[in-house]
Amino acid sequence: MRHNKKVNHLGRTSAHRKAMLSNMASSLILHKRIETTVAKAKALRKYVEPLITRAKVDSTHNRRVVFSYLENKYAVTELFREIAVKVGDRPGGYTRILRTRTRLGDAADMCIIELVDYNENMLGNKDAAKKSKRRSRSKSKKSEIKVAETAVAPETQENQETPKAEIEPSNEIADEKPVEENTSDTEVKE
To answer: Which of left, alpha, beta for 99 (phi over 0: left; psi -120 to 50: alpha)?
Structure first.
């Protein structure tokens, strides 16, 4: 029985596991998404989310603590400059695990782990879903509809008057065309 065993050792020694998680966290921070197995992604989530939380406060101490975990100065710079600014208002849950397939060699469950705020496709769908959920109309919506109806009404009146206006000028233009053709012919002959 595995009661009270919360750490997945991933079949590795302690030093190997720490090095692997450090490299995966650096890759996730630099590339914003990586493909790995579900077990490794769950272990990586526990490893990297506290680092992102610590990066929200940019201090020398926090940078040194994060560097001791990542051991990659480019990943630390990226984390404190860009990622911490983008996730500053998010209270947690910085990563998302999307299951993709099973690996052919050993039938391991594969997934993509990504930073939530860097997937524009899902962010766009989220905004669209929020807009479509609303069912009640507020006063501003009713006023917009009234404005739209008043805007439609003059157009329909203009459309009704337009055929009359088209018939009259077309007759006038037909009368004027022979006069213009004669003048243009005389100018060409001269």
So the answer is: beta
**pLDDT tens across 18-33, in order?**
999 999 999 999 999 9
Q: Quote the DSSP letter at residue 113.
A: E
Calculate Rg over the CA atoms of the chain. Answer: 33
CB 37 within 8 A of CB 12: no
pTM over 0.70: no
CA-to-CA dists, residue 90 to 83, 93, 174, angstroms = 11, 8, 70
Q: What's the rounded Cα separation, in Å, for the pair 31 and 74?
A: 12
- The candidate with the shortest Cα–Cα distance to 21, out of 36, 5, 31, 2, is 36
Instruction: Classify residue 40 as exposed, middle or buried by CB count within 10 Å of its CB (0-12, 13-18, 19+).
Output: buried
Can you tell me the distance from the alpha carbon of 176 to that of 173, in angstroms, rounded to the nearest whole number?
Answer: 5
